[in-house]
């Protein structure tokens, strides 16, 4: 079981591709092993807590504000359909933290991000990769924050910037989506030739001197509409890029692999001083 400890240094920033639920059973696959690698990174850093933003929770009000989960038991939301029964029997044990919840809501408020609360739990964009990363349970506090409801990358960047202030308190920030996400094309057997070009564009944006601006610019890329027929799986990448500081952080590739319509990308930003 992972142990949580107050971190004296600055928190990290991560983006994970979470794929589909079957990946949590594909123990020999490269994405599965990348999630395990991420888990080892987190356990080594011992963050004070993890603030997570997933593609699968958008503010239902459709505003540029967000919603914060206040259910400290972190129940699991099985927000996928048509899978075998055992998919809905998987468990991942974690908890929130009252002080962390206060810190998150205070950071949002002080940065001008409107935030409401809801007792919801963790959707599969969080618990599926975490189940693998932490072998089913973790003592690291986890608080999930929704995406803004307006589907605007500028609002996502504002959220990431607001959450970045929590890093100085030892919290790590994580966005969870998919680098390339055209599920319909994938299910139809499409090769997704646009996916490789878009994944290359993501890498260029993140490795630039202005990753947040670069991530926002991806929404104007010629392949964007094919790579992301809807924006929700790319918005968490904007959140993560905006939570990073290109002047003080070093970007590290955790796992990047073209996969046509469902390309994989996972990255970490870590303070250069900690390297």
UniProtKB/TrEMBL annotation:
InterPro entries (alphabetical): Extradiol_dOase_DODA, Xdiol_dOase_suB
One Pfam family it belongs to: LigB
Chain coiled-coil ranges: none
Residue ranges annotated for the Extradiol ring-cleavage dioxygenase class III enzyme subunit B domain, each copy included: 14-251
Name of the protein in question: Extradiol ring-cleavage dioxygenase class III enzyme subunit B domain-containing protein
Sample GO molecular function, one term: oxidoreductase activity, acting on single donors with incorporation of molecular oxygen, incorporation of two atoms of oxygen
Entry keywords, A to Z: Metal-binding, Oxidoreductase, Zinc
Organism of derivation: Cutaneotrichosporon cavernicola
